Amino acid sequence: MQQLGDIGWMKKYTAYLKLEKSLSANTVEAYLKDVAKLSGFVGDDTSLIRVTPSMLETFFAQLRDVGINARSQARILSGIKSFFRFLLLEEVIEADPTDYIDAPTIGRHLPEVLSLGEIDSIIQGIDVSKREGQRNRAMLETLYSCGLRVSELINLKLSNCYFDDEYIQVEGKGGKQRLVPISRRAIDEIERWLVDRSEWPVGKGQEDFVFLNRNGNALTRSMVFRIVQYQAGMAGIQRTISPHTFRHSFATHLLEGGANLRIIQQMLGHESIQTTEIYTHMDKTFLREQILSFHPRNSKP
Questions:
Q1: What's the whole-model pTM score?
Q2: φ, ψ (nearest 5 deg) of residue 178
């Protein structure tokens, strides 16, 4: 949320971009979104005018944490630099805090990110007439719609699915549990799978696992990797794709859609010295509203 003083300067900045810089409507919109991302990160307690290089370093570190690639980071930095140069010209600030921030190296290896179209091609390309087809579709839809780690996916329990409330409870690293909003589309796919699952054998002690193999046991990490790679190949995607690619894509699409970076951090189950206290006080209703508002998978099928 922007403070009142920031709102006034954002209006002047918008006019500056349109009238003095003569930028296109798309470029102006992109720059404003970049500044809004930073505003959402610093929160109500800090005016954009008082942002420090240290805050900016933490902001970009968290962009890297959620899998935003170097090219996207550089573009966001460009938009934020433009805003602080404007404040400097207007003599609102005495020094530009972005002067101390280095642009990311574009050439370094960073996680792949799938476009929404590629996600659709992979999931819609699954042959549901095959015995495992509906299971695989439900599994990949859940992987993407909830931004899960593969370990969280294969250990998802029926007793931790609260479909009426559109939440699932997952166990992340270190055995830490968190509630994750789940899209209606993913719920529908899982419910179709559960119809098929009722006719599958279920191994002893495996009754509560959502996703089972053909022998009635919980899936393994390697099996999910093989399914993802096979379906990506069937969709004509030649890049190296893994289950984690779905997680990075989830985070990227949320951020590009305008979701708050802190919300994405909590959704992913990331914890750090800077963010743990913030997560402790995060409101679950606000979290769910953010995800349902900004995730592309939450439109009606």
A1: 0.61
A2: -150, 155
